[in-house]
From TrEMBL:
Alphabetical list of Pfam families matching this protein: HTH_1, LysR_substrate
Organism: Pseudonocardia nematodicida
Keywords: DNA-binding, Transcription, Transcription regulation
Family: Belongs to the LysR transcriptional regulatory family.
InterPro entries, per database record: LysR-type_TF, LysR_HTH_N, LysR_subst-bd, WH-like_DNA-bd_sf, WH_DNA-bd_sf, YidZ_PBP2
HTH lysR-type domain residues: 11-68
Keyword Amino-acid biosynthesis in record: no
CDD domains in the record: PBP2_Nitroaromatics_like
Protein's recorded name: LysR substrate-binding domain-containing protein
Length: 321
């Protein structure tokens, strides 16, 4: 009778690394590039894995691969196994950024990528030339999926939300900002300094990451609007912060965005920056990671690098007098 529990000797453990990238990328060529093997080698590994698990793992539908039900179940334990192996190997030696070939994965919203991306990749290359960085753009579902996300990446850059109150999550401050209103420079509904509350209540809005099903939602903009008793008439919603000023310029719409982004945008767009009618909540952007990384010297080095770059490139916005 066949043993129901496969033995470790029956599978090349190097295939687990390939499998992790295949499940992440859902694309054989990209997975091969990330592992550093040829596309035929990755295809051969996938074939071996399919035989081992007696499952397709990646199923082609509409011209792209999707995870099979079994593959979806493998994602989380596979990440834990691979991270555990990497942690085990790093405990036998100190971390040396000058020789590491490690890949770091970080989730960031697009406006943070614009502010920190260049300096971060520059310093990473200067100090760890063979290390790799994967930047994943934050999506609308980040808050709802933060628990599995934080386990599967090195770090997340985000404002805190109530859903981030997970005991295993750690964080460090990066920078702060404040909310301002942006309107087209020719919009006759608004003056030059403070946005009129009544005009805001009847305006049409561009709102990043808006969810029509829940208001107020976990999206920080939603909370500020709710404090003024404004349920926005949303004309445009977009999964991006940096796109918002472009969708306001030349229209009758308004938006609530980070002041740093607003000041950058008025250099090239015909926009007016207005103060929020009451003192808004401060915007605090933090670096988040899972507690299991606390004793990993490579991870500690990486998060210290991100924090240093964040504080250098995006210092706290001074409060107006």
């Amino acid at each position: 009778m066949k043993n129901a529990t496969p033995r470790l000797s029956g599978l090349d453990l190097n295939l687990l690394v390939v499998l992790r990238e295949l499940l992440r990328e859902r694309h054989v060529t990209r997975a091969a590039d990330r592992v550093g093997v040829t596309q035929p080698a990755a295809s051969a590994a996938l074939a071996r894995l399919r035989r081992h698990f007696d499952d397709e793992l990646l199923v082609r539908r509409d011209g792209r691969y999707e995870l099979s039900p079994l593959a979806a179940q493998l994602v989380e334990p596979l990440d834990e196994i691979c991270d555990g192996i990497e942690s085990l190997l790093t405990t036998t030696r100190g971390f040396d950024p000058s020789t590491t070939r490690r890949e770091f994965r970080i989730v960031m919203p697009d406006h943070v990528v614009a502010a920190l991306g260049g300096p971060l990749t520059g310093q990473l290359h200067a100090t760890a030339p063979d290390a790799r960085l994967q930047v994943v753009l934050a999506r609308a579902a980040l808050a709802a999926t933060i628990e599995p996300t934080i386990r599967n990446v090195d770090a997340v850059v985000s404002q805190p939300t109530s859903r981030f109150r997970i005991p295993e999550m750690r964080s460090s401050s990066l920078f702060s900002d404040r909310w301002v209103v942006v309107a087209d420079a020719g919009n006759p509904r608004f003056g030059d300094e403070v946005a009129d509350r009544a005009a805001l209540a009847t305006a049409s809005w561009v709102v990043p990451y808006h969810d029509d099903a829940a208001f107020p939602s976990v999206v920080p903009v939603s909370r500020q609007l709710a404090r003024l008793g404004i349920r926005p008439r949303v004309a445009v919603r977009v999964d991006s912060f940096r796109a918002v000023p472009h969708l306001v310029a030349g229209t009758g719409h308004v938006a609530l965005i980070h002041e740093r982004l607003a000041r950058e945008s008025i250099r090239t767009l015909p926009l007016r920056v207005l103060t929020w009618p009451e003192e808004p909540d401060p915007i605090t952007t933090r670096l988040w990671w899972h507690a299991r990384h606390d004793d990993d010297p490579g991870h500690r080095w990486f998060r210290e690098l991100v924090v240093r770059v964040g504080r250098e490139q995006a210092p706290t916005v001074p409060r107006p007098r």
